Amino acid sequence: MKTVTTRIPEDDEEALSALEEELTADRSEVLRRLIRQGLTDWRQEKALEQLREHTITLRRAAEIADVTYVEMLSLAAEEGIDTGYTTDELERDLGRI
Length: 97
Hints:
This protein is mainly α. α3 crosses α4. It has helices at 10-23, 27-52, 58-65, 69-78, 87-96. It is elongated and about 50 Å long. It starts with 9 loop residues before the first helix and ends with a helix.
């Protein structure tokens, strides 16, 4: 693992302390979880934006977001992105297998 050092505003430090208590975890674990969640969100947003712009395929969006094809189809549907393939069609196709 790499070590990263950063400065944060005092109010963020207070929020981190509260989160440490809530999660009964140390500062490093809390920060790792927050960074992991932030990166996950960022990847999904990036993939959905490119999908919305029709610059990538649904399969490529799933790869970028590090989710399954079905999960990306659901995320796209939640965002109202037309993928040319609906969740109903997917369920129908899965039922045929």
